[in-house]
Specification:
By secondary structure, the protein is mainly β. The chain has a domain at 21-119. 2% of the residues lie in helices and 44% in strands. It has one helix spanning 154-157, and strands spanning 21-25, 29-34, 37-44, 55-62, 73-78, 82-87, 92-97, 110-116, 129-134, 138-142, 147-152, 162-166. The strands form three sheets. The protein has a four-stranded antiparallel β-sheet, with no helix packed on it. A hairpin with a 2-residue loop joins β2 and β3.
Amino acid sequence: METARVPTLVNVTTFKLSQHIRVVAGYEHIHVEDLGDLYSAGSGRYGELGIGQLVENSPLARVARVVATSNSYTLVAAGIHISIALSDTDSLFAWGDARFGVMGPNINTYVSIPTRLNLTQSVLKGKTIKTISASSHVLVLTSEGNVYGWVSNSYTNNNYRETMTTVN
């Protein structure tokens, strides 16, 4: 796709999409959610497309589903080389550049398929997530009205310690 500095039609006719779609944009990638199915396009060199491989540039492709109990994604956010989604089973999945803590303190690489985040030991255990947002960090809004965020704080003090804090 050529660089466009004005609104330009994005051709997504490869797939038969319904009229019930949502689109989110990351740094160099997009996600199109259609009735629970998730598709990605753009740069995936850090795994942020979620299609199972690291690619420089990809046309619209379906994001991998990795859990038999999850039939669809209900929310999705795209950030700087990362993606995060909430499944219909209320599990959070992330993929992309995990070197800075978006997937927790023990994953320090590129992840090219959606990977369930282990929240059993976090402050989010038992909380209902209402919306998610991503940039170089992740924010979630819970049904209680609290906002939680996490990322490595390596940007400020050069260590890879994960932080998860309420900002309410």
